[in-house]
UniProtKB/TrEMBL annotation:
Residues 120-283 form the CRAL-TRIO domain. One of its GO terms (cellular component) is membrane. It comes from Aphis craccivora (Cowpea aphid). This is Alpha-tocopherol transfer protein. SMART domains: SEC14 (SM00516).
Amino acid sequence: MLKSSMSSNKILSLNECRKPSMKMLAAFSLDTAPLSAETRALAEREIRETPEQVQKSLAELRQLLQENNTLTYKDTDEYLTIFLRPTHFYAESAYNLMKRLATFKEKNEKIVANPLPREEKKLFTENNVVNVLVDRDQKNRRVLIINMGSAWDPKSLNSEQLFKVLYLIQIASLVEEETQVRGAVIIIDFHGLSTKQVMAMSPSFAMTLLLYIQEAMPLRMKEVHIVRQPFLFNMVWPMFKQFVGEKLKKRLFFHGNKMSSLHKHLDANMLPEDYGGKKPKLSYSSADWYPVLQDLQSYIADWNTYGLKK
């Protein structure tokens, strides 16, 4: 569950974030427990994660990084495993993912060069566009909600800032080993979409978002669900469709207002009432779990230093 670690302003390192806090004073905190036996078994089946393969892949990835010497990176098992898990422990694929992420950061420096939670606080506390469900789904995956309809005021949160919010949340999610293995699911809610939001969604935003998700994001993206999209959505979709690759197409689902269709993929028992689920209606927002990002200030600052060598 995403519960807040503490109400204080203490900045935690990544290792400290993985020590369960005894102070559960606020609503959310990261799931810092080691992988369960069930998840370890899943990792072995799905991504070849065995002790022998892990050590072999780590050694091969280190060798590739040393031979090429074009990236600045953290040479720890923990950090390198973040890239090996979404690439099924194929070292060359992990290296290429690291290189694509570094290149993406270089090309989009204006947005993701050095985003820090304390400098982006208003984006989280004064907008309710992006949210993370407290409950994981039936497969123990994280569920991210993006409200791109009437809940989104582009004057308050432009498309570049929206991407920055998503980027910071994704970095935070990598603290959770469970999420590294199980992956994440996105629900994009277009309820109340108007021309105001349509005008804010440019082809460049669509390209940047989908390029990151498909090419540079070190996280297993399992499914993307489009819900409550009105007829006006037909003006938006062509901008995104042109950048959607074959792999993502197979994981992209359109439901409209038919929540029973969504429930074929996400168990209603794990969803809030907002999406026809049996959990209570959403009563929290990104402002409630912003303290999680504050706790990860040092970790995110460290992550920002990795990329192409200057």
